[in-house]
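Handoff note, outgoing to incoming analyst
You'll be picking up this chain. Sequence as last confirmed:
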Amino acid sequence: MKYRKTPRAASSRSQEQPRLRDVMRRLHLRVTLVSAALAGLAVLLAGFAVIRSYALDNLALIGQSASYTAEAATVFNDEVALAEALAPTISREGITEIAIILSDGRTLWRWQRPDAGAGHRLRQWMNGIIFPDPVVVPVSHQDQKIAEVHLRGDAGGLLRYVVVAVAGALACLVFSAITALILSRRLQNTIVRPLLHLTAVAHSVRVNRSFNRRVPGSSIAEISALAEDFNALLAELQAWGEKLRQENESLAHLALHDSLTGLSNRARFEAMLSQAVSEGRETGSQVALLFMDCNDFKGINDQLGHACGDAVLAEIGARITKLLGDGHLAARLGGDEFAILLAPIESPADAQTLADRLLEAMAEPIRLPDGSDITASVSIGMAFFPDPCGDEEALLDAADKSMYEAKRSRRRAGGPGADMNPV
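Most recent structure output, in case you need it:
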């Protein structure tokens, strides 16, 4: 006998299968939640990676700046001077610990941020995960490593970002669930299209770090609110990135410039000198190097105090900057030693002219902090590439010898004026 389905059996089977409305509702809910969760996770991970990268770069630049700042005090093992020199560094956000470790392994000086309150343990736990190892920057003196700067970062900023990001992601999930439930009877494209935009932006943020992109608005209020929350999160990430970028630029400037005079420091001078010599060798252009030293500067420091000595150095730097302009490089190599790199020059007479103008400018009295005036004489030595100095080392050596010969000539002459000795 042939079996025949009864209407009742067909009805019973249809009741066992899910209805289209329920399938669409669940489908909308799943698509919305998964898309929002993936988008939020992508932004969270991408933002975390970018902010952590900026934070590490920021910490490395702080360490470089601290290395130059702490050099003099480290040479003399002066903990008090170290504390004073590094006070601006430890006042910055983003540092929990800084230590000066000597070459023999002894800790010369250490500072740790005090207990910050109830969230201190959570902060320490986050610091251990995000910054497991300290940033180590060498401290060098006369091309020899004498110590290391050990820095540990503070994850407080990243912790705030994670809290905001998680809250934003939860808000996105809540809005997504409400939207999917309310709009379950509407066409799938009406819901999916805005989420595709959101996913595309999240993908662009994760892959290309395009934090300037925004999710377009939607005719659906809930999806529009989701886009606004998502855009607000992107805007915050963009603001964080811009702030860290500006701090990195500021620290990069500090790492390559002398804090007292504003001139370039030795590291930047050496790099620019090497570049100028290489370009001069390729193009056949001339390079001039001037070494300048303040005569009897130790006597100024000993008799008038370091504040007056600093004022003299700062005024010398200002006068060099005023005469030199932006065409060439001026640097403070350390103490009362300055260097001026002229690259390229038409002839040695150009360097001679500048040196004469420097001597005239330095002959003017310098106003000290106490209101008195002092005349600080200088000695200048010059050397030229490629004739007679054929490389960078010869150029440095010749300029240095020329400057000291000028100082010896001044002593033999017994005059107080500034001297110049070209090579």
